[in-house]
């Protein structure tokens, strides 16, 4: 079972350590829910928990009946299963990567990330920044055993690729159209 601490740490992880939804004007919980629930197919979001960061603590907006958690981190909606939450926590804390396979929906796309530095905070001339449109991610040990996917630092985000290749946190990025 997830704890409030784990949800909070994952939310801070995925927002790069910044405050959860960085906006100039407050957004109502209803507007937040509407945006967050673009992250996954309806059969996932209809029964998922939805959490929101308030400062440095998370708040459950809707308690779900499944183990999926949907949230927004750094303006990016996502839904994760418990294994993906564990993987994200390990990544953020530089802890040992989980051997469990997890799944993350990000059907609204992302704002980009370095494909070589798992902790990069922004694009630089040499950190191989890649912006991926709508996608799903397979994380954990199973992603490391999948063969035939590009491990290039300069990934083509229109095709499946391995993000952070060679790191303990490498994972498979699968664009969807």
Describe the structure.
The protein is an alpha+beta fold and 177 residues long. The chain folds into two domains: 4-74, no CATH class; 97-175, no CATH class. Helix content is 22%, strand content 25%. The protein has an eight-stranded mixed sheet with strand order 2-1-3-4-5-8-10-9. The protein has a two-stranded antiparallel ribbon with strand order 6-7. Strand 3 and strand 4 (76-80) form a beta hairpin. The longest helix is centred in the first third of the chain and has 11 residues, at 4-14. The radius of gyration is 15 Å and the shape is globular. It starts with a helix and ends with a strand. Mean pLDDT is 87; it is low at 1-5 and 15-24.
Question: Which features characterize this protein?
Answer:
single chain, 177 residues, alpha+beta, 2 domains, eight-stranded mixed sheet, two-stranded antiparallel sheet, globular, disordered N terminus
Largest sheet: 8 strands, mixed
Number of domains: 2
Structural class: alpha+beta
Average pLDDT across residues?
A: 87
The total beta strand count reads 10
Distance between the termini: 33 Å
Helix content: 10-25%
What strand order characterises the main sheet? Answer: 2-1-3-4-5-8-10-9
Unreliable spans: 1-5, 15-24
Bin the strand percentage.
15-25%
Count of helical stretches: 5
Q: Describe the global form.
A: globular
Order of helices and strands: HHHEEEEHEEEEHEE
Rg, please? 15 Å
């Amino acid at each position: 079972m997830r704890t409030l601490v784990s949800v909070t740490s994952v939310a801070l992880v995925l927002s790069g350590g910044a405050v959860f939804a960085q906006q100039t004007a407050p957004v109502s919980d209803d507007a937040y829910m509407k945006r967050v629930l673009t992250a996954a197919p309806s059969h996932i979001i209809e029964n998922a928990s939805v959490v929101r960061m308030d400062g440095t603590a998370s708040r459950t907006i809707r308690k779900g009946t499944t183990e999926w958690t949907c949230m927004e981190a750094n303006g990016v909606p996502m839904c994760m299963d418990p294994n993906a939450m564990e993987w994200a926590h390990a990544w953020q804390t530089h802890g040992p990567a989980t051997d469990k396979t997890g799944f993350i929906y990000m059907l609204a796309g992302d704002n980009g990330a370095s494909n070589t530095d798992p902790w990069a905070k922004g694009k630089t001339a040499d950190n191989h920044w890649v912006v991926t449109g709508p996608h799903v991610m397979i994380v954990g040990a199973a992603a490391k055993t999948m063969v035939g996917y590009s491990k290039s630092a300069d990934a083509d985000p229109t095709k499946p690729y391995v993000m952070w290749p060679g790191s303990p946190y490498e994972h498979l990025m699968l664009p969807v159209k």
